[in-house]
Amino acid sequence: MFAMGEEGALPKIFSRMNKKTEVITISLTVFTLIAVVIIFYAKTFDKILNYTIFLESISMASSAATIFILRKRTANLDKKTIYTVPLYPILPIIFIAAYTFVAFSIYADDPNAALNGLYIFVGFLVIYFASRWFNKK
User: Fold this and answer.
1) Phi and psi at residue 61, in whole multiples of 5°?
2) Stretch (H or E) spanning 19
3) CA 26 – CA 31 distance, rounded (Å)
């Protein structure tokens, strides 16, 4: 959260340090509150694990999908100034498919956990885009 606050992906308040102790109090407090809510809400280790794996799966698949956006934006560069990967676009597609399969497997096993994980993911997307919008102003 600290790094994301510094970069502007989250509000700047997450990058504030306590001047006396140099502790990122706000980030750690928010992280702790989220963890406590998840523990009390999920109640079992299996539920927490399902949330975590589902969130990681959709996050990793989304992150890998950005490769295609970045490639499109840098299509004007020559092959010497851009990093290339053998078997592109096959490897990213396989990676995305594998993580999507894991997400669907969790949905099949525990639809509640998958839907709640999806709500959490969408919530953080809203926070990200809202903070970008406020930073532009």
Assistant:
1) -65, -40
2) none
3) 8
Q: Bigger pLDDT: 22 or 61?
A: 61
Q: In angstroms, rounded to a whole number, what is the distance separating the alpha carbons of residues 43 and 127?
A: 26
Q: What is the pLDDT of residue 73?
A: 85
DSSP classification of residue 135:
H
3-state secondary structure of 4: helix
Using a 10 angstrom Cβ sphere, with 0-12 exposed, 13-18 middle and 19 or more buried, the burial of residue 114 is buried
As a whole number of angstroms, the distance between CA 125 and CA 24 comes to 23
Instruction: Residue 99: name the closest of 88, 87, 91 by CA.
Output: 91
Helices (H), 43-110: 45-73, 90-109
Residues of the chain with pLDDT > 90: what percent? Answer: 28
pLDDT digits (tens, 9 = 90+) for 55-108: 999 999 999 999 888 888 887 777 676 777 788 889 999 999 999 999 999 999
Q: Residue 109's pLDDT is what?
A: 93
How far, in Å, CA of 108 to CA of 91, rounded?
26
